[in-house]
Design goal:
- By secondary structure, this protein is mainly alpha-helical.
- It has eleven helices and two strands; from the N terminus they run H-H-H-H-E-H-H-H-H-E-H-H-H.
- The protein has helices at 2-33, 49-69, 73-79, 88-106, 119-142, 145-148, 151-154, 179-189, 196-224, 226-234, 246-249, and strands at residues 113-116, 193-195.
- A two-stranded antiparallel sheet has the order 1-2.
- It is globular and about 50 Å long.
- The protein starts with a helix and ends with a helix.
- The mean pLDDT is 88.
């Protein structure tokens, strides 16, 4: 009983992180689609263009810094002095939830339209938008959402059997190496109405995704060596059918 009482706060905190993850994802979907919520990526305009861009850039930078800094090993080691290992991922998820809530709640749109389509083209784009989010959601489950959101580490389910890490090359990973990022890129860019603030959001998110993929690829090559090089030679990183040989980039 004493052990269960000690675990209860961990379980509740990790559940809060998971619920926040789900809520923020749903909020982002409707925020970018411009439906349901009163404030979206496109409007309404509340302040002048210059200050709006400055606020939005600051919010995007806050998320990027938090997500990058907390993923670094020295920062993890520093946090480990106060946060138990079982709650390390939960702490990261909660901090990410807070930064995304601030981004969505304080986002400042401004006037400016890049493109706008109606009719069949709009229906096709909305279908692709939904498909992008579906791919992103399915991908989180493919890489173990329980572990991604910290539930497994906090004790909601049994930890996975310890053993050498395996390179995942089947399922979605046989089509692209980073299906989660592919889904997010589609969701960020595909819209019947691309406004200037939406374009800023999509461009900044794309830059961060590409940077993150670069560092993840570096870590994967360190872990799996030539096996990952062979895999990368067969399967594109983000765009199905597009494989860039490393020799070409040298």
């Amino acid at each position: 009983m004493a052990g269960m009482r000690r675990r209860t706060p961990d379980l509740l905190l990790s559940a809060l992180g998971w619920l926040g993850f789900q809520a923020v994802m749903l909020w982002t979907i409707v925020f970018l689609a411009g439906v349901v919520v009163p404030r979206t990526v496109d409007g309404p305009v509340r302040i002048a263009t210059g200050p709006a861009i400055a606020v939005d850039l600051a919010l995007l930078l806050l998320f990027a810094v938090q997500h990058s800094v907390m993923a670094r090993r020295p920062v993890k080691a520093w946090l480990g002095r106060w946060v138990p290992e079982r709650l390390e991922r939960t702490t990261f998820v909660l901090a990410t939830d807070v930064c995304l809530v601030l981004l969505l709640a304080l986002w400042q749109p401004w006037d400016g339209e890049v493109w706008h389509v109606d009719g069949v083209a709009a229906v096709l784009l909305w279908s692709l938008y939904a498909a992008g989010w579906l791919l992103a959601v399915v991908s989180t489950n493919a890489i173990d959402q329980l572990e991604l959101t910290g539930l497994r580490q906090a004790g909601w389910t049994r930890p996975r059997n310890a053993g050498p890490e395996e390179l995942k090359v089947d399922g979605l990973y046989a089509v692209v190496r980073h299906p989660l990022m592919t889904g997010l890129l589609v969701a960020f860019w595909v819209t019947p109405q691309m406004t200037a603030p939406h374009l800023l959001f999509a461009a900044a998110a794309t830059g961060y995704i590409l940077l993150g993929v670069h560092f993840e690829e570096r870590d994967l090559r360190r872990t799996f060596g030539s096996a990952y090089d062979d895999y990368a030679g067969r399967v594109p990183a983000l765009i199905p059918g597009l494989v860039v040989r490393r020799s070409v980039l040298r």
